[in-house]
Amino acid sequence: MSEIREWAVSFIASVRSVFQGREETVEKVLVALLCRGHVLIEDMPGVGKTMLARAVASSVGGKFSQLQCTPDLLPADVLGVSIYNQARGDFEFREGPIMTNVLLVDEISRATPRTQSALLEAMAEGQVSVEGRSMPLPDPFLLIATESPVESEGTFPLPEVQKDRFFLSLRLGYPDRGAELAIMLQQRRLETPLSLVRPVAGMAELVEMQRQVLTVHVSPLLRRYILGLVTATRLDARLALGVSPRGSLALYKGAQALAAIRGRNYAVPEDVRDIALPVLLKRMIVKEDASSQGMTEEAIVKELLEKVAVPPMDTVAG
Amino acid sequence: MYEQRLGTLRSLVHPALAILLPFTFLQAFDAVVRLGIFSGLLPPAPTGFLFVVFLMGASRTAIANFLSRERVSGLFPRLREAILTLAAALVLLTFLSARPFHGDFNPLQYDMIWPMLLCASQWLFTLSVQARLRPRELFLSLLSGKAGHALKNAARDAGGEAGEAHEGLGKLSTLAVVLELFVILPYIGLQAALVIQGFSPPAMGVTARVLLYAVAGVAFLVIMNGFKEEQLHLLEGIAHDPHQAIRRSAGPLAGICSLFLVALLLPGRSALLPLSALARFLNWLAHLIPPAQPIEAPQIARQPGNETGAGIFNGSQFGLPEVHESPLLGQILHIVGIILAVAVAAGILFFIVRPLFSRDARRSARRLHPLRRAVRNVRLILRFLAHLPRAISAWMRTPGKSLSAIPRAIIDGLRESIAERRRAASGGDRTRRAARSRAVHEFRRLARWGRKGGIALTGTEGPMEYARLLAAHAPEKASALSQAALLFEELVYADAPAERGERALSRIVDGIVR
């Protein structure tokens, strides 16, 4: 796992050379990449969501496409469409922007539910079906969707059950003073800062690392802990919907990836606790009455992390 | 921590260490081997062959940095590199031997064997030293650009890497000491044998080459200790201070230089400053003070052919008066001189040999038991041969797959079988459960100690999280707490934990709670 560790350090350094946010944010995106999952970034405009996605794509060295969602965006605009070629006399399939390694879907909530479904189905299946023909998506494939919480007019917010399909969701927040100053200084050059980002891995290397992450050992004690956390969400009276088995699987894989990034071939409770919030955040629904009292998903997850015992630390504590 | 310093370490300091330690050892080892009984068997090497040996080390470091940048790793690239560089070295040595200029282009000559062995050794040693220094580079890269509190937290988060780096530095220190013994002890033994047999002593060039490695080895140990100390400071959030490093190094370097001078001054068949000259000097000093009775120059055993005691520093040359010499004072001076020389030699030997008896060295020595290593290597080769037909048949069954799938399949198979072997060696579930319960017992002791200090374990925090809470209140034990948490995690959550890890955990907890 030391190779993954070294690669992770280079990847994070490469992304952070242009994205002035927190290191933990980039680490979480890397976890999603290694787990073959997808990322939902929900935050205010102008905090660097697009910059982050572009930097990740540049660092991975794969093909990158960006999709700006608008209400008139059709599924064919995303997946691809057959166009009649007059010279040849037949239909020619033109691939959509989804046929790429890293796809940035900006403002996913502005696309219609039909287009959102097409995207999410492709995410889940790993392939697209157009006119009866199935085409596999490139491997690896990472979808980074962004959503702004402030604009609600003319948008179609993703339902919570659809957000469950994303491996993890992140909130970037405003950068601190030092980071914001660095952003200003970056703009003194004519060329975009992204032009300085070089790939730190090839696609074949990334696929191999994704395979190695699956071999990270998760002990029965840790599996019990993951189930304990997830079960606690299902039994919590403040939640209308607890975390699904897809969520527990995401937590399991996320812990494996985080352990590999940290150079270990076994996961530890800290890996689970560090990835719990972004993985579980969008997989729960708070009840109306709890929500009106100011209770949020984030607060509940943090509370559960303080309440659920970590085996065998509960035995140690006595 | 500055990126510039990390760049200097990666591109200059570490490669220099990786080249110079093996090179100084090999050139001294070559001198000692030629001095000994092998001198008759070894033909003279081509002029300048040591330069080729040095180039082997330099090329290894340059290619290693290149491969690291290109993210190329594994056995086959290194094997290819070794074959190509050794072939280049053979060609270079052949030209240095001047035989091609006489029409003989055959590189496979008897006098090429020893220089090629030295070249291969240089390559292997450089590879090994660099591999041991890589964890340190990784650890420092994680701290780059951080300072103060952020540095401290980052250093503690990188506790695993810190441990690996520390282990690597310990192994290098042990290597330097072992190589010193491989050179100095045979040299002393051979010199004594030559003197006893009545042969002429070795030329100054041989002694100089041995002393060069002795000095280089000691300097290397000083540098390794400096690295370890720097690491401890980083764990406390104290960044590297180059001026302090220079101040700290100046003392040991001055000591090494003075030791070098003492070594040159030691009496011998043709010593620069024999003890008799020292005695004459003391006599001259005593002459300035009116003596109660005449004093006598010490009775130094005269070398055959030198009965008059004439040496480089002959007293009569400086107009020193002849004095009546007291046998008692002379004997006392003689004994004091010998005691001083023995004490200095013992001190040097103790300083060199001491790391061999450290806990790290003992653990390494147990793991490096020759028979166990030999059996392990044979098993690895047999497993490789067992996986080869399976990998080839799998490749043949899958059309369109590239040839590189074969070595990949072999490596995967080896990894799985090694992991299985480790699981079996750890005795399966029952042994693991026993190790886990012992680890829990030790961590419970730590929790009791923490509770006394006001930091109770609630059972909802992870081991490392709890260790950080304790470290915040007892910063002087931060490093030990981090190690204890890491070891506990490995014993409880890993698939194949370290052998006897619970003993190591017990020792660390003992150190914390007492």
Structural features, described:
Chain A has 14 helices and eleven strands. In chain A, a hairpin with a 2-residue loop joins β6 and β7. By secondary structure, chain A is an alpha/beta fold. The longest helix of chain A has 17 residues, at 245-261. The model of chain A has no long low-confidence stretch (mean pLDDT 84). Chain B is globular, with a radius of gyration of 30 Å. The interface between A and B is medium-sized, with 38 and 30 residues.
Set out the fold topology.
The complex is a heterodimer of chains A (318) and B (514).
Chain A lengths: L1 H15 L6 H12 L4 E4 L6 H12 L3 E5 L6 H5 E6 L4 E6 L6 E5 L6 H13 L1 E4 L2 E4 L5 E6 L12 H4 L4 E3 L6 H10 L16 H11 L6 H16 L3 E3 L3 H17 L7 H12 L4 E2 L1 H5 L4 H11 L5 H5 L1
Parallel strand pairs in A: 1-8, 1-9, 2-5, 5-8
Antiparallel strand pairs in A: 3-4, 6-7, 10-11
Helix pairs in contact in A: 1-2, 1-3, 2-10, 9-10, 10-11, 11-13
Chain B lengths: L2 H33 L13 H21 L5 H22 L16 H31 L4 H10 L1 H39 L6 H32 L6 H24 L9 H14 L38 H27 L5 H9 L2 H28 L7 H21 L2 H25 L10 H11 L4 H16 L7 H13 L1
Helix pairs in contact in B: 1-2, 1-4, 1-6, 1-7, 2-3, 2-4, 3-4, 4-6, 6-7, 7-8, 12-13, 14-16, 14-17, 15-16, 16-17
Features:
heterodimer; A: 318 residues; alpha/beta; five-stranded parallel β-sheet; two-stranded antiparallel ribbon; 14 helices; 11 strands; 47% helix; 15% strand; globular; B: 514 residues; mainly alpha; 0% strand
